[in-house]
Amino acid sequence: MVGSLRGGLAGWLAEMIMKSGTGIFMNIILGIIGAALANWLLGLFGMALGGWIGYLIAGFIGACIIIFLWRAIRGRRV
Fold first, then answer.
1. Interior/surface letters 45-55, b for 16+ CB within 10 angstroms, e for the rest
2. Which helix or strand (DSSP H or E) is residue 17 part of?
3. Measured between alpha carbons, how far is 8 from 6 in angstroms, rounded to an integer?
């Protein structure tokens, strides 16, 4: 429950910045998957984010990466 709340918030923040046009459910999914992706990428560089704020930052970064990759593959819709 708490993870999905943080994931949803991270996804919503990414939506505000990246303007992906996804719904609230997809924002939650993007935030949760994005946090896992960002934590993995940061681990490659020997860095780690912990705690509530760290998870939120990681989710935001990861969700932005996922949105960017999705746009690159699918193309941006207006």
1. eeeebeeeebb
2. helix 2-18
3. 5
Q: Are 58 and 42 in contact (CB under 8 A)?
A: yes
Task: Calculate the alpha carbon distances from 36 to 32, 53, 76, 77 in Å.
Answer: 7, 14, 24, 26
CA 47 to the chain's CA centroid: 17
Q: List the domain boundaries for the chain.
A: 2-73
51: left (phi over 0), alpha (psi -120 to 50) or beta: left
The pLDDT tens digits for 11-56 are: 777 777 777 666 777 777 777 787 788 878 888 988 877 777 877 7
Tallying the residues shown for the chain, one arrives at: 78
Torsion angle (degrees, nearest 10) of CA 56, 61, 58, 70 = 100
